[in-house]
Each structure stands twice: as C-alpha cells, then as structure tokens.
Design goal:
With 65 residues, this protein is mostly helical. The chain has one domain. It is built from 2 helices and no strands. Keywords: Signal.
C-alpha cells in the first residue's frame, strides 16, 4: 500500500510541475506573400500541362510581365 501512495504522490507532483511550467514561446512563422499575378501564373502553368490533351479547349492567356 505504501508503494501505491508513493507512486501516486510522484505522479501528482509530475503533473503539477508539468502544468505549472511556462509554455514555450514559439513565434508564429511568417505567412508567405503571394504575387498579385499568382492566379494568372497558375492558370498559365495549368494550361501548359494540359495543352497536349485534345479534349480540353486551348486557353489563350496574355504574356507574363
């Protein structure tokens, strides 16, 4: 019975120490900035990858700046 109380005390102390410790201060990672023409670029890349398929209509996009 003494062993049970000893291990229960150790468990309670470890839980108390874990909850009372300061949480690590993790700085949030910066969000990636998207280019204004990212949608146009994605459409252009998609059109190039599908240009060999005859079932899809050909997309005419303006040239990139």
């Amino acid at each position: 019975m003494a062993k049970f109380f000893f291990f229960a005390l150790i468990a309670l102390l470890s839980v108390h120490l874990a909850l009372s410790a300061d949480p690590p201060q993790i700085s949030p990672s910066p969000t990636p900035k998207l280019v204004a023409d990212s949608t146009l670029l994605l459409m252009r890349l998609t059109a190039r990858s599908h240009s060999r398929r005859r079932c899809l209509p050909q997309m005419r996009l303006p040239p990139l700046p």
